[in-house]
Amino acid sequence: MRRHVHTALIAVVALGGTLALAACGSSSKSSSSSSSSSASAKTGGTVTITFGTYPDSLDPGAFETTQAGEADQPVYIPPYTYAEANGIAGTKIIPGLATSLPTISADGKTYSFFFRKGLKYSNGQPLQASDFLTAVERSIKIPWPLGSAFLVPLIQGAEAYSKGKSNTVSGITTNDSTGEVTIHLVAPYGAFENALAFQAYSPVPKGTPMKNESANPPPGIGPYKFENIVPNVSYTEVKNPYWTPIPGIQSGYASKIEAKISSNTTASALSVLNNTNDVFDWADTIPPSLLPQILAKASDRYKKLQLNSTYYFFMNQKAKPFSSMLAREAVIVGLNRPALARLGSGFFVPGCFFLPPLMAGHPTGAPCPFGVNPNATGNITEAKKLVQQSGMAGQPVTVWGQERSPRRQFVDYYTQFLNQIGFKATEKIIADATYFPTTGNLKLNPQTGFDDYNQDFPNPIDFYGLLLAGDAITPVGNLNTSQVNDPTINSKVNMLGSLYKVPTSQLSGITAEYETLEKYVADKAYEGVFGYLEAPEFVSDRINQSVLVFQPINGYWYNTFALK
Amino acid sequence: MSVGTGTAGTGTEFSAELFVQGAELPPGIGPYRLAWRRLRRNKAALAFGGVFLVIVVLCLLAPVYASHIAHTGPNDNHITEMINVGGKPTSVVSLIGIPIGPTWHSKFFLGADPNGRDIAVRLLYGGRNSLEVGFVATLITMVLATIVGLVAGYSRGLIDGTLTRALDVIWAYPVYILGVALGVSLALGGIGPIHGNSLLVPAFVIGFVFIPYVAKPIRGQVLGLREREFVDAARVQGLSHLRIMATEILPNLASTIIVFIPLMLANAILLEAGLSYLGAGVQPPNPSWGTMISDGVNNIPAAIHLVLVPGIMLVVAVLSINVFGAGVRDALDPRARVRIGR
């Protein structure tokens, strides 16, 4: 799930791009693509995983964080899900509880699919098609934090239901006898298949309370079910006795998964190093001071995983100095990306394009604009010249940043860099919880600062539609913090833009167009991209890494945890 | 006055010294001069006072050190640079973000921080910031607390009640919680024309939260002083209340105020370090001993110098002020016995 929290959006109606399977291999640091070899994997046993942060909710209709998505992933299979494979192969959408990919009407506004027969919840109750409607209505009522982007504005009748003007979501019809579900959208949205892969769309039994049931989440259909939840402390997952095997979804190796919370990440990392715990949560940071030990003693069970997460400095085109393209180019040319990677403890791949390496449309192998080498230290002399040419030398700049490490250190560096190339920069560091709402307020009109975006799903429209489209600029909760409003980009990724409407299943056909757009965005220096996040895969020597699957959206597939 | 003479046990009289009670002063020796003599004899207090003076001077010379010895500023990042350590080229910050330790040379004498900034340079500039905040905060506390305590103790009645309750409200909040709340909110918007990044913001916050700690004792002393005969005499002479407070009562508070100054300075420096550690004091990238400790906490296993260096400096500074302050308090104590050479 995302690190960058969505806030309310104006009606986002989008036609998504199709999901590409274009080989977009990043550096050798990315997780290697591996086909799960179950031959050597042992079944049974208990696997322990430590988390630094407890899931915000274990209820599929209420969660938002990666920790929660990871826990729910093997418990609540949605109608569609992602292939259990590492790397870009893991971004392919496949049927989950549905029998096949949805049938999409010619106008792109109607989706229909059938649920597989004979499926049962973890309490033995049989699945009915109408349970899908229950799940959607429940997610609206709770409400699901991402519902304002991926649920309410998309489905006909969802808005009326959310406001209490209707007692059901009129745009969803179901047939319990055939298992068919039909969804009518407000407007074509090509990425709707990706939306159907959110756990919020996983069916739940009728009668499930319409409130956040994190401590006692509803039964689901998945290889595992919850057992022994101690809020903010631990939870356990055990095999679901009513699970019916589904092609493409591993039925699970370990009998039990125990998740424990430990806010002391140093202690967590040491416990995995010493084999007293099995898995270190990838969303936590391994203290850099421990890395030498880990590399020396456990390099065979440690590696870096590529995430679909871009880190950048936004540059507001509507305010000086970054209303000048030369000023923006100075930042692109002068940034020391390897230095920023070191500030991130080395968990960064330096880069210059907006889409991350595992996202369709990332122009793999293409040179960066302005002769930039992302692995070089930046050309300060050229940057200073560009600032002088822009006429913005001496311009006061406020640089916004978050408190937590290493984001604050990124901004420390960036502020010093801006001063070095000729601006008069000062920092403003604010609390993490208020950072994005603050920079997303157009009244503030922030000039520049830290930003990052982690995919909601592996479809480039997720990045472009919210961060670069002109119609995504909103008075509050604005994610297009650079206020990019370019007609060339808008014609493709605004609502009803040419790329926006393309269904997910046809994404491979428009990958080249996204690559062209990426180069255009880079040439215009719209964003100060400096790298793509990596995460640590660090496990004990009990874990069979040959079958372990890490999915860039929700993290580890727990049903691929296996002991040697 | 009691006068004593004594012998050294050899039958020789020595009459060069008189032992006097502090309250019984020979003519021509004022109480402050007496206090200074007492202080001079307190070698420990003087030594620690000297240490603090050395710290202040070193911090004032930070720009000289930065430009002539370290050749870098306090905020200059050198993340990917290489330097020679023991003849071997070494990254200032390693690929996994571990900064170099003390080189004991002019460059990175005490090592670098994760942003590749020179710790020694930041230590001195941080000391300037910490001491500046401490001094200004102490000044704010002492001035406002003296005024509030004086007015409250002298006025009594409604004014005293109102001021005392206001002090109680401030006092009721734990100092750090109140400091963090004020520091965070004011850091964003500033105070009037004062920018949020200004050092005056944490100075004001710290000065404000410590007012009750000084105002209340002063008020207590004023309550006693206002009943003294010299105050009655001043009233009878027709002096205004303001004049009485300024000319009759305030001078008698001088000793109390002097004793409080080093105490509050030490507390102000400590509180500034704490607030800066929590992100509510000196704002980045400006260094202070508190922000330096905060920056280094996550790197303790691999780069303990990040925490030790500013931590030791903070301890030495506060300890030296406290010991010197204790010496000043003892010197000003009217009940102390003292030898006076004739």
Q: Could you provide a short overview of the structure?
A:
The complex is a heterodimer of chains A (564) and B (342). With 564 residues, chain A is α+β, with helices and mostly antiparallel strands. Chain A has helices at 66-72, 130-141, 147-150, 158-162, 192-195, 265-273, 291-297, 325-334, 337-343, 380-390, 407-421, 432-439, 461-467, 487-493, 511-523; strands at 46-51, 80-82, 93-95, 103-104, 110-114, 172-175, 180-184, 224-230, 234-239, 256-261, 279-280, 302-315, 348-350, 396-402, 424-430, 448-454, 527-539, 550-551, 555-556.
Q: Could you say which overall geometry of chain A the principal axes of the C-alpha atoms support?
A: globular
User: Which assembly state applies to the chains in this document?
Assistant: heterodimer
Q: What is the CATH topology classification name of the largest domain in chain B?
A: MetI-like fold
End-to-end separation of chain B: 15 Å
Distance between the termini of chain A: 29 Å
Strand content of chain B: 5-15%
Helix content of chain B: 55-70%
What average pLDDT do the residues of chain A reach? 90
What would CATH call the class of the largest domain in chain B?
Mainly Alpha
Radius of gyration of chain B: 25 Å
